[in-house]
Amino acid sequence: MGADTPKAGNPAGSGESGARSVRPDRAGLVTAAVALAACGGLVLFGVLSPGDGERKDPKRQVPTASVTYEVTGTGTADITYQARSESGRATVVKAAALPWRRTVPVPLGRSPVVSIVLGEQGGQARCTVAVRGRHLQSATASGGYGRATCTGTLPGAAGAGAPAGAAAG
Questions:
Q1: Spatial distance between the Cα atoms of 5 and 162, rounded to a whole number of angstroms
Q2: Exposed, middle or buried, 112 (CB in 10 Å: 0-12/13-18/19+)?
Q3: Each residue of 13-49: pLDDT tens digit?
Q4: Contact call for residues 128 and 137 (beta carbons, < 8 A)
Q5: H or E element: which one contains 86?
Q6: C-alpha of 153 from chain center
Q7: Maximum separation of any 2 CA atoms in the chain, in Å
Q8: Helix (H) or strand (E) segment spanning residue 163
Q9: Strand stretches in 74-123, DSSP E
């Protein structure tokens, strides 16, 4: 055996006898990475998704009724109306072009209300309130800064089956 001949057990001829370099198996690493990612995804899903009986929104859902507010006439008017809101505040539309109409959900137990205020030039405008398609009230405003308010009543959440404004008997 000459100096250029590799030793038995060392095919690379590096001069080290019996030592072998260990190279990781790429297929095994890819499989391990995929398995780790899948486990991480399942853990993240379990942490972020609600369990049985839980809702993502901890707030209680309040039943509502569909209320249609309508203001007819010509020109413009400032319109204030009640709709579903977090704060319970009314919605205000300044200088709304007439005719104007909105259908909004209003929480049961609250009173649907629409108010109109005409501008300095006056004119005439009429407001109406309807709940679930049933007319409840109308009123007319006229003249400079004329005002009118229409309101109705909605049943409480327990009496949600009867339409508001229905006559007894």
A1: 102
A2: buried
A3: 455 555 555 666 777 777 777 777 776 666 666 656 6
A4: yes
A5: none
A6: 26
A7: 121
A8: none
A9: 76-81, 91-97, 100-107, 113-118
Task: List Cα–Cα distances, 104 to 70, 83, 111, 136, 154, in angstroms.
Answer: 11, 6, 13, 15, 13
CB under 8 A, 24+ apart: contacts of 145-148? 145/117, 145/118, 145/119, 145/120, 146/117, 146/118, 146/122, 147/115, 147/116, 147/117, 147/118, 148/115, 148/116
CA atoms within 13 A on the CB side of 99: 8
Q: For the sheet containing 134-142, what is the strand order?
A: 100-107, 64-73, 124-131, 134-142
Token pair, residue 157, equals 């959440």
Give the C-alpha separation, 121 to 143, whole Å.
Answer: 7
pLDDT tens across 123-164, in order? 999 999 999 889 999 999 999 999 999 999 887 765 444 444
Amino acid at 7: K
